[in-house]
Amino acid sequence: MLMMDEGKYKLNYVYAEDFGTGYFKYGPITLRDKPYMVQSRGLFLRDLPESIKLLVPREVLERGVVVGDEIPKYLSSIRDAIRNLRYPLKDGIIRREDEDSWKITKELARYGFSQFYSDFSRRSDFRGFFLVVALSALAPDYMRDRMIEIHKELDNEFGGKLLQAVTIIDQPFAVAIAEKAVTCTVIEAGHGNIQLVPISYGPIREGIVALNRGGSEANAVTREVLKDSGYGDLAKDEYVIEIVKRTAGLVSKNLDEAVKKAKENPDRFSIRIKINPLVEVELKDTAWMRFLIGEVVFNPRHELFTSYIQQGRLVIEDATVGDMVFYGEMDLAEALITSIRRVPVEIQDKIMSTIILSGGAFNWSVPPGLEDVAVNSVDKVRIMVSERLPDLANRLSISMVKDPQFSVWKGAIIYGYALPGNVKWNERTKEGWYYLH
Fold first, then answer.
1. CA 141 – CA 306 distance, rounded (Å)
2. Which of 48, 42, 60, 58 is closest to 109 using CA atoms?
3. Cα 183 to Cα 190: distance, rounded to the nearest angstrom
4. N vs C: which end of the chain shows fewer Cβ within 10 Å?
5. Each residue of 364-404: pLDDT tens digit?
6. CB under 8 Å to 182, separation ≥6 — which residues?
7. Cα angle, residue 54 at apex, residues 83 and 238 outer, rounded to 5°
């Protein structure tokens, strides 16, 4: 059912979900610039002692899985907690037959809606959200179909009053929309993978290049840095790893020169990180390793990573999902050049004229006093391309989105507002509004 004043209605009731490998971002258009965010994970309530079961709400026990802020309540009470804690998306994809992951995905969506529905449902004009689901550009068609089914089930559980219509958008296309870029290349670097997607009024699928690394590999390197710095106990804690990565990680202008300077003058590069009032981490003699944390996102082929890989401390390898190859060690400059070469020659100039970086794995800063050796992600990509093809680098306009973690969600909200209500779902193209009623 379309509203009499569709634009006015959507201005209040468009809702977007960004299913990332590391984090799930969600919320209505009324949040404006910043969605709510929780980790993309779920804890199955298996092996619960009978004494704990008595304290768990019946509906939670029946669903058998908790997500979001509810997870810490149960972690210490569950035997084999690590085995029961699952991350549903790998490289932005959920396997067709992986019912546990689909159950977590449904619970994440429910968790998000439950924080807004009671308030919105009291409004006299509310007739259900226009929902936009943002998925990886590499997501197969069955994922899009299953997402619609999951949300149909949730709508039924809310008495048919939760959703009016659902549509799906590729995450890199959402970034382009948020940046008002019609023709460009989006490089989306998330927790699980990096997607390079050329766009000309929509994704050019022949030009997509996928890399099998992202923020999770930076986490893996951070774990090894902690071990080598004498913090083997803390290296087991993902919370600590995330803080150290974000605080200590650096991206170099030139890795060899940066490491050389850091080893010659460790005091200049040392850092003390206060995790909480009781836990503190200091990197001094191993401060040169700070550059490895950022470098692995851009170029894991460097020889400094060889020993980690040979010892099995770091796994970076090609992976095949369906007919798509996720390249493990391909550096970012080569990936960008490969992507551009795959699109028709007549539009290559336009595609390469605007390069947009997005995603949390590109969110690196340059500490004061280290400007001679460290750079941000935009400058790193420009330097890497210059080394490979100087003439191409001079023609690139590279920019970073304002909010790397939230640009997909914002673009999805804009798309949901702009997509006319009379554009119905097309089974072949998987575009348009799928009306539930």
1. 37
2. 42
3. 22
4. N
5. 999 999 999 999 999 999 999 999 888 877 788 899 998 88
6. 176, 199, 200, 201
7. 30
